[in-house]
């Protein structure tokens, strides 16, 4: 159930930090729990659009093997009644076979106030074109 709620930019910025902290747990269930049941994920390193909780969890099962860390470089937050949008640029550091790769990505997170908390309902992330 959705209900109106007052919120501010700092609170929405913290949601992205919470997402990165969830990545650091290396637990796909912890990350997937941040997404609403009807969320859509357009991920960085997969061509498959993820439209179910199982598909989102599956993506993070694979993605977390690269030990991702996010560093926000630019964010733009817009607030609406029960929705908030955070879009911008982050650097994702991936580690594989003891080699770190840094990927600059543009992102959009759309959050909805859902059952007493913010949930991601749409997440798009793609590498910046060179």
Descriptive report:
There is one protein chain. The chain is an alpha+beta fold. 25% of the residues lie in helices and 46% in strands. The protein has helices spanning 9-24, 28-32, 53-63; strands spanning 35-42, 69-79, 83-96, 99-114, 117-127. A 5-stranded mixed sheet has the order 1-5-4-3-2, with helices on one face. A hairpin with a 3-residue loop joins strand 2 (69-79) and strand 3. The N and C termini lie far apart (42 Å). The mean pLDDT is 94.
Write a concise synopsis of the structure shown.
The protein is α+β, with helices and mostly antiparallel strands. Helix content is 25%, strand content 46%.
Q: Which descriptors apply to this entry?
A:
130 residues; globular; alpha+beta; 5-stranded mixed β-sheet
Which helices and strands appear, and what pairs or packs with what?
Layout: H1 9-24, H2 28-32, E1 35-42, H3 53-63, E2 69-79, E3 83-96, E4 99-114, E5 117-127
| Helix and strand sequence | HHEHEEEE
Overall 3D shape: globular
What is the count of DSSP helices, taking H or I runs of 4+ residues? 3
Numbering strands along the chain, what is their spatial order in the largest sheet? 1-5-4-3-2
Largest sheet features: 5 strands, mixed
Q: Radius of gyration over alpha carbons?
A: 14 Å
Low-pLDDT runs: none
- The end-to-end distance, rounded to whole angstroms, is 42 Å
Which range does the strand content fall in?
A: over 45%
Q: What is the mean predicted local confidence, pLDDT?
A: 94
In total, the number of strands is: 5
Structural class: alpha+beta
Secondary structure: helix percent: 10-25%
């Amino acid at each position: 159930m959705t209900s109106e709620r007052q919120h501010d930019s700092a609170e929405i910025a913290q949601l992205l930090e919470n997402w990165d902290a969830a990545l650091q747990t290396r637990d796909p269930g912890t990350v997937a729990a941040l997404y609403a049941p009807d969320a859509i994920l357009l991920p960085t390193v997969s061509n498959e659009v993820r439209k179910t909780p199982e598909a989102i969890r599956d993506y993070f099962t694979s993605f977390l093997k690269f030990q991702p860390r996010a560093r926000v470089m630019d964010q733009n937050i817009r607030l609406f009644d029960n929705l908030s949008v955070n879009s911008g640029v982050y650097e994702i550091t991936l580690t594989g076979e003891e080699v770190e790769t840094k990927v600059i990505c543009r992102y959009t997170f759309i959050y909805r106030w859902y059952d007493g908390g913010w949930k991601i309902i749409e997440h798009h992330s793609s590498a910046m074109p060179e």
